[in-house]
Write a structure and sequence with these properties.
The chain is mainly β. The chain is built from 2 helices and 12 strands. 22% of the residues are buried. It comes from Flavobacterium soyangense.
């Protein structure tokens, strides 16, 4: 029985993968939601990352690090040019810092490109599509959909404003 449970857990870990959504993937609306973008302007911190099965499944967020490493990460969003930066700072996790380019369309889809230093954002053809949820003046969520063993699961990144 223990071997079966262990095998199932290992299988889930092997099949839990982060889907890469190209920013060139067709999105119904390309018109930007300026009011949502202005609402996200400023400095933010991720306070939690939640998803079903988080005790058994490891999610590699944005092909950077384990999703748990994003708790405490800092994000700076500039709404007038859709640029910013993010940094992982959690002890025991890889140090990572990068410029980003982002936008929110009228459907509430957050488009994120992680840009290597010295690279122009227009040269970055891959990115991530997340859904904006529960946006207020001091908090919002980004919700990603991942495939775990053939089933879609939602990973929720909870942001809190820090300034």
């Amino acid at each position: 029985m223990k071997k079966t449970i262990t095998l199932v857990v290992v299988a889930i870990l092997l099949f839990a993968c982060k889907s890469t959504s190209g920013t060139s993937t067709p999105v119904t609306s390309t018109k930007l939601d300026k009011s949502s973008q202005v609402g996200i302007k400023g400095d933010w911190k991720i306070t939690s990352v939640t998803y079903p099965g988080s005790d058994y499944i490891v999610v590699n967020s944005f092909q950077i690090a384990d999703s748990k490493c994003f708790v405490g990460s800092t994000w700076h969003f500039i709404s007038n040019n859709n640029k910013g930066n993010m940094a992982l700072t959690k002890a025991g996790c890889p140090a990572f810092s990068s410029p980003i380019v982002w936008s929110i369309n009228k459907e509430g889809i957050f488009v994120l490109k992680i840009v290597e230093a010295g690279t122009k954002s227009k040269k970055v053809t891959q990115g991530y599509l997340l859904r904006v949820a529960n946006q207020t003046e001091t908090s919002f969520q980004l919700v990603d959909t991942i495939n775990v063993g053939g089933q879609n699961k939602e990973v929720t990144y909870q942001f809190i404003k820090t300034n």
